[in-house]
């Protein structure tokens, strides 16, 4: 192994610099490929299909019906408490009286583990992969509140937050933010292919597509 300060390393790097001196700049990557294979009017249906294929529970609603739907899902799950991001729209939880646990910096993992559910928005949803992307925005909160509670309700505004393919999602995302890509509930399989859910994230993922 050549040490960082060895004469051999310096000679090799000098030869490389001499060889490329005056060479033209490398061309940029060609981005002539298609960024999606899904027509715009079919994205929401494809997203719902792929989310369900990953065993997420998919619901559809309009803005007026969202509070009642969120309240019903929390009640059906038996939730007595819900983690709440700081910028979650107040009307989303208007139909429920469960205990709200704010996304506070001092909240411990053990305290979050005692919370029954979390309700968030999202940054973008990708139809072709059935993926929800969170970027710790105001309506999503810190990453940990979407990884520790066992039940996650995620609201997606359709169609404005739904894109066809991954290349269409990337320009909407800031790579300096903590991005969480979710394709269905957390799960893994052992060598016998026995599926276990809730390993490193929520056991149950419910996605509400708010249209219109």
UniProtKB/TrEMBL annotation:
Q: Which InterPro entries match?
A: FTHF_cligase-like_sf, LUD_dom, NagB/RpiA_transferase-like
Q: Locate the LUD domain: which residues?
A: 104-210
Q: Where are the transmembrane segments?
A: none
Protein known as:
Lactate utilization protein C
Q: What is the species listed in this Swiss-Prot or TrEMBL entry?
A: Streptomyces montanisoli
């Amino acid at each position: 192994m050549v040490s960082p300060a060895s004469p051999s390393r310096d000679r090799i790097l000098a030869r490389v610099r001499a060889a490329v001196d005056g060479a033209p700049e490398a061309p940029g990557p060609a981005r002539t490929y298609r960024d999606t294979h899904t027509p715009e009017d079919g994205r929401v249906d494809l997203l719902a299909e792929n989310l369900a294929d990953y065993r997420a529970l998919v619901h559809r609603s309009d803005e007026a019906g969202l509070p009642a739907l969120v309240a019903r899902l929390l009640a059906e799950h038996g939730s007595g408490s819900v983690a709440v991001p700081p910028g979650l729209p107040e009307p989303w939880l208007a139909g429920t009286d469960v205990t709200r646990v704010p996304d506070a910096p001092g909240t411990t993992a053990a305290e979050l583990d005692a919370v029954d559910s979390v309700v968030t928005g999202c940054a973008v949803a990708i139809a072709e992969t059935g993926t929800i992307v969170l970027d710790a925005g105001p309506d999503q909160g810190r990453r940990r509140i979407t990884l520790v509670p066992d039940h996650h309700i995620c609201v997606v505004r359709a169609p404005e937050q739904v894109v066809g393919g991954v290349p269409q999602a990337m320009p909407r995302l800031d790579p300096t933010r903590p991005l969480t890509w979710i394709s269905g509930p957390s799960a893994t399989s052992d060598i016998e292919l026995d599926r276990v859910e809730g390993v490193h994230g929520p056991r149950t993922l419910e996605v509400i597509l708010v249209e219109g």
